[in-house]
Give the backbone structure.
Amino acid sequence: MTAPEHTPVMPGEVLRYLAPSPGGVYVDCTLGSGGHAELILEAAADTRVIGIDCDPLQLDLARTRLAKYGDRVQFVRSRFERVLDVLSQANLNNVDGLLIDCGVSMDQLSGRSIGRGRGFSHSGDEPLLMTLDPGQRTTAASLLRDLSEGELAKVFGQVLRGGETRRVVRAVVRERARQPIERTGQFTRLLASALGKQGPALRKRIAAAYLALRVAVNEETSALQAGIADGVEALRSGGVIVVITFHGLEHRTARVAFRELQGGSTGPPRLVGAPEREAKVKMLTPKPLFPIVADRPPDKNVGPPEEHRMGVGTVTFLSPTDRPTRMSGLLRSTVWE
Ligand SMILES: C[S@@+](CC[C@H](N)C(=O)[O-])C[C@H]1O[C@@H](n2cnc3c(N)ncnc32)[C@H](O)[C@@H]1O
């Protein structure tokens, strides 16, 4: 088996907020190849990790990497939105910390490793699957075949601009009437001609369309919503949930979930008299944290323009993998005691 290519992002921040304590139990909801899990296992004596991933190939990579920790690690093939079931089957509750590191790993994206032949990357020509769980029946090809025009517009409209979405949807509908869209090469050519751009600008838009489709195939947005809400339920009072997000859809989903968990009015911001929601968490990081890029002075830590365009109101740096990365730490509030 090849060595993992994925490097855990923001390792210092994850450890600072999870602050593993001896004997503590931590849930890594997105185990991947086990990079963050290893940091937790090394951080204090006898820490335990429940490592969840829906991709059995990732679990294999993690098993190899973490073999030396023996029964301090449990490997669970499941989806993290079922975290409460996973923990109840392991007879666990009130865990000390929980990590969700959203999306896909470099190993899944790479054509050299476990990602080969799975259709996550727009370079190359592979079956158009994009399933994080290879056993899943809904694939990118089946969505392109089965979704109505309106549903396709919803999927691509999450990340593409209005005109781009209309052109891409029209091209998909035209192409599927001629032949099924089943290969990445075919889909990439279709996008290139529909998007009408060139060079790096085109590659960016193609990558965005692939992202939109992958998020839909794996139901990543609803998974993140449920994962955060249930993850908080799994924590002991004072336990910490850390969520790492990489793109606008994830940033937004996490922000909304955190806002709800902090309680307050259930109505629009200035509506007086709307019922109050109970606070379940206290934010440890009122604003998301961003990875520090070593060769930039601290006062230039102002991140990529994409964040401004997304209207997040905060700024970030590109991570070493060129992906914008944000992290939020939450402390479960003592109101649950
Ligand atoms: C960014 S990687 C995590 C990398 C990991 N932190 C490390 O250091 O190696 C995200 C992982 O989450 C998994 N994943 C994504 N959505 C999931 C879900 N809803 N349930 C379980 N695993 C999921 C992916 O299969 C992938 O392995």
The beta strands are 25-28, 48-53, 73-77, 95-101, 235-245, 264-265, 276-277, 281-283, 326-332. Confidence is low (pLDDT under 50) at residues 299-323, 333-337. The pocket of S-adenosylmethionine is lined by residues 6, 8, 30, 32-36, 52-55, 58, 79-81, 101, 103-105, 132, 223 (CB under 6 Å).
